[in-house]
Model the fold of this input.
Amino acid sequence: MYGGALRPADPRRYLIEAIVGAMQADGVVAREELAVLEENLQDHEMFSGLSPEVTRTLVEMANDSIALAGGPTRRIPYLAKGLPSRSHRMAAYAVACEIAMADGETMEERQYLNLMQRAFLIADEDAAVIYGAAMRRQGMREVEGMTRHLQGLMPFYLEAMALMACADGNITAAERAAVRGVLKNVGDMQVLGDRELESSVEAAFRRIEGKDPDACLKQITRALETVSDRYWAIVYMGIIAIADGYTQWRQVWLLGSGQEYLGLTDEHMDRAMETARLFPIRKE
Done:
């Protein structure tokens, strides 16, 4: 789900930094917190393939970055930029919660977690579930379950992106290539191999071809039950809009329709486009 060798701009760099930031939040790095760090590095698949030497280097980099920023809370906005995908943000929040609880949560650690939740755009309902699991030392396992839920929603997110790609009424080979190019850079989509990705993209375009966009949006809305799930549909649509050269959601009629059907506020829409801009976009 998360594993593999370290790559440039690897999100695990920022995941480890989130852990180290939680350890430093109250100014005391406790033995219990170090134990939680070691346990997560050893037990969870998102860190698989990283040697002890690499993880030590990443911890040292985290310490340097936090010091340069002037403290853990000041570093949080940079972590949000380094972790654009929803699953990686939830994973970082989960481990930070476990660190904060390891030796008794302090006021400073609570502030760190609150700032992280807001900067990472983690919905209150998701944050509550993750926090409760972290109290049982099951935070990452809960996130793994939530990530599998996200994978189940991928066909609907792909349809939303396909709708966005053909919003002008003409589905071209270039637009299909643009969707594939974007998806290859989206962390939440990297559970799909190249062949699966190609098949899934083509299937999404077939499902929407010749259909009324409003009808498709209604169907997508029925599949996305929570505000958080619906919010991320706009994020994915926004990625394609930005790839097509748009800068604001109000410039695109389909995003306006998406807001209406998904029941999102202007603030949701603004923040979704802000998140969409964090994703690397590469057309094939």
